[in-house]
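Write out this protein's structure.
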Amino acid sequence: MKILLTGGSGMVGKNILEHHEALKYEIFAPSSRELNLLDRDAVRSHFKSISPDMVIHAAGLVGGIQANIANPVDFLMQNLDMGLNVISAAASVGVPNLLNFGSSCMYPRDAKNPLREDVLLKGELEPTNEGYALAKIVSAKLCEYISVEDASKNKNYKTIIPCNLYGRYDKYDPRHSHLIPSVIRKLDEAKINGEKTVDIWGDGMARREFMCADDLADFVFFAIGRFEEMPHTLNVGLGRDYSINDYYEAVAQVIGFYGKFEHDLSKPVGMKQKLVDVKQLNDFGWHYKTQLSDGISRAYNFYKEGRKNGI
């Protein structure tokens, strides 16, 4: 089975490529230098030359709340162009199966938690990541339309909506990183520098669900073997969440930071809670494996190796 993976150099892509199940497949993962996903003609030509049995679209411009607020145009345009180019090219050259990666940012800001798949497009989006969310929603709807319109051609184009992710190969630059890698770097630097206090944006009571990228890779290969049975839109997460304060405490325990936390109430915090409903996921037969402390330890060890090697 030939699989074309976009985003192979990102956190999710690298965890997919390093998963033990990857050896069972012929996986093509072109770099951005080899294939510019913003060039529609180049994408179509590349897909036609490979003729994959499945496309996994994991590429995207991603970042935490600071990056989304600072660069809404890029987060909308680049993710929208990549999604439309990849999905339309796959359909035009006859790729039968496509697994599209969405995001829990797609859900309305005021939707009731846990977030069920059927509440998409039923409310306003969170302003701090609206551009990114809009791009992901359009890509998911395109997959749905193609599957319905080309049902007679057996096109299975499906979208998974992972919760927030962290793990090996994450970004640890505070300007671009998500919560856990940002906290790892902040607390590690605070420990090294002998700082007594570290600031937390907001009151720390907002709740988030973070899954280790190793587990998402595990889900991908689980889904490949049961792709026809998989729902067209499916949450992939833990079904439980923690407060921002909890994550700071968990990272502090792993790193060995014993200082105090101060809350900066002037900073934005985003949605109060973002927890995905995993009923369909449980019915599909998959469950996460990595506990939070173990996942943070792996991520911290990866970060320390990178810091030691000057990365």
